[in-house]
Structure formats: C-alpha cells, structure tokens
Amino acid sequence: MKLTFLGTGTSTGVPQINCDCHTCTSADTRDKRLRSSALLTLDDSRQILIDCGPDFRAQALEHPITNLSAVLLTHTHYDHVGGIDDLRPFCYKHPGGLPLYARQDVIDDQRQRMPYSFASHLYPGVPTFNTIAIEPGKPFTVDGDIPVLPVEVLHYKLPILGFRFGPLAYVTDCKTMPPETMKSLRGLDTLVLNALRHEEHISHLNLRQALDIIDQLKPRRAFLTHLSHDMGRHADTTPTLPPGVQIATDGLTISITSD
Questions:
Q1: Which of 100, 220, 252, 253 is 20 to 30 Å from 65 by CA-CA measure?
Q2: 207-247, pLDDT tens digit by residue?
Q3: The sheet that has 158-165: what strands, in order across it?
Q4: pTM
C-alpha cells in the first residue's frame, strides 16, 4: 500500500496569492503546496482518492491515476471538493457512477453544487457518481474487500471525517479529536495529520497541538499536511520536529506496511 500526497497546502495553497513572505517567495520546491488531497494505491489495479480540491486537474496530470476505484471526502469545504467535476474521465469507467463515499450532509451538498450530475435526465458527458453515505465508527469496504474505518474529528464546530486503512490513518482539518477517535487511532504505523501553522487557529490544529496528538497516539511515524505559509519554510521547520515526524511535501509517496 502506498500513499501519494497530491497536495499538502491549506485553502489558499502555498505560495499564497499576493504575498511576499519568506515562505511564499522561497525557491525551495518543498515550499510549493497545492490544496490538500491524497491518493492511496492498493495494487496495480486499484486506487482511492481522498478529497478532490480545486487543484485536482493539475495533480492528476502530474501523478498517474489510472485505476480509480473510489473517492472519499472528508468534508464539504471548497478546498476539498472543488475539483470533483474534473473526475469525468474516471466516471466514464464506472457505468453505475464513480463510487463516492461521504457523510450524508456532504452528499446533499454535492447534489446542490452539481445538480447536472444527479438530474433525472443527464446531459451527455456529465460526471456521474454512485454516492454512498458513511458514518463515523462504522467500517465499510471499497471495491468489495478494502476495509475503511471513518473516524470523526471536529473542524471548529463542524463534524468531519478522517479515515483509517489498517496501519494508516489520514486526518485533515482537525481542531479537536474526540476520545473515541483517539482510541480508534491507536496502534498505527503511519499517521497523516494536519498542522496549519505555529500560532493558534480557530478550526485547525497548530504545530504544537498536532505534535501533542502524535505523542499520545505514538504511531511509528507521522506526516504533517494541510500547511499554510505561516508554518514557515520547510528547511527551517523540519529541524525543530521530533524524531519520527516529517513535513509532507507535494508529490511525496510513502509505503505503508503492517509490520
């Protein structure tokens, strides 16, 4: 199992438009961050997309996505769903619609945003989806045999989903991690967790808070994602991190094992 970070930035991306800070003007490619998304590759024939933001087209052109089995959505904010229309080429390979797993409120929102994909009489060529409502704490399977456990975190006051795939968990846009979710994320090999910046934020973990959660869960390793320009440059922040914790970068691919 491999995870590719398609995008590791926050809603504005990095560099941020109209900003001349040290991070945004950095020449280091590790400081270039598209909006947050990830691709899980199970084998040669199956891939799962986690979130599909407005940068998806550029991400898909850069990284081969050839056998997309399903899309999982964490929540309905635009930086996580703004690229769903660009899934058209993958929808065509699924006669019943590309499987899309999300909370019911997220599905309802997508139906309002993309009514042309859910109409009684579909215009030729529109992307189509087989929407499956999921709930935190209730495992489901993708493609018949890929187990996924959705877990709930709070994005300020908004309940959203993270996902556990056996030894791997992917959690983004978290501000508060409930005790039951903490319990569900014990025994991980790899944890992906958001860390927006150094300063406190109303709806995202800052670096210290993310490191506190990592210290409590004790995965073998952890990767920080959904970073803003206020986190600072990769080269400056990396040396301050504890052993086993890394900053994820766009295009990074990691292998996950259960050993």
A1: 220
A2: 999 999 999 999 999 999 999 999 999 999 999 999 999 99
A3: 140-142, 146-155, 158-165, 168-171, 190-194, 221-225, 245-247
A4: 0.97
